[in-house]
Amino acid sequence: PRGTMVWVNLWALHHDETYFDEPYEFKVERFLDDNGKSLSAHERKSFLPFGIGKRECLGEAMAKVRMFLFVTSLLQKLDILPEDKNNPPDPDPTKFAHGITNLPGPFNIVVKERK
């Protein structure tokens, strides 16, 4: 009906074995072509973190650049380690708490300035 809001369940789409072999494993090669270059949004087909169509995020390019700069500057300047090296956080996303975002269980980290 007119005015109906339609939402795509991106979590279900991004974890569908029809599109992603071993969807809970991080495999960067899913997002790269044979030459190691990033696939375009059209080539990624089922990966839609910024939406699609008329309602897709206008800030996608800016967000990607800013996040890249932010994360690389953090990793250049800081060592980020689990507080207890013998008991690191469980990286298994099937055990995360599900909601608007997926959250791992609580864990502590130590952040040290790189020398």
From TrEMBL:
<keyword id="KW-0503">Monooxygenase</keyword>
<protein>
    <recommendedName>
        <fullName>Cytochrome P450</fullName>
    </recommendedName>
</protein>
<dbReference type="GO" id="GO:0020037">
    <property type="term" value="F:heme binding"/>
</dbReference>
<keyword id="KW-0408">Iron</keyword>
<dbReference type="InterPro" id="IPR002401">
    <property type="entry name" value="Cyt_P450_E_grp-I"/>
</dbReference>
<comment type="similarity">
    <text>Belongs to the cytochrome P450 family.</text>
</comment>
<keyword id="KW-0560">Oxidoreductase</keyword>
<feature type="binding site" description="axial binding residue">
    <location>
        <position position="57"/>
    </location>
    <ligand>
        <name>heme</name>
    </ligand>
</feature>
<dbReference type="InterPro" id="IPR017972">
    <property type="entry name" value="Cyt_P450_CS"/>
</dbReference>
<dbReference type="Pfam" id="PF00067">
    <property type="entry name" value="p450"/>
</dbReference>
<dbReference type="InterPro" id="IPR036396">
    <property type="entry name" value="Cyt_P450_sf"/>
</dbReference>
<dbReference type="GO" id="GO:0005506">
    <property type="term" value="F:iron ion binding"/>
</dbReference>
<dbReference type="GO" id="GO:0042446">
    <property type="term" value="P:hormone biosynthetic process"/>
</dbReference>
<keyword id="KW-0349">Heme</keyword>
<keyword id="KW-0479">Metal-binding</keyword>
<dbReference type="GO" id="GO:0042448">
    <property type="term" value="P:progesterone metabolic process"/>
</dbReference>
<dbReference type="GO" id="GO:0004508">
    <property type="term" value="F:steroid 17-alpha-monooxygenase activity"/>
</dbReference>
<dbReference type="InterPro" id="IPR001128">
    <property type="entry name" value="Cyt_P450"/>
</dbReference>
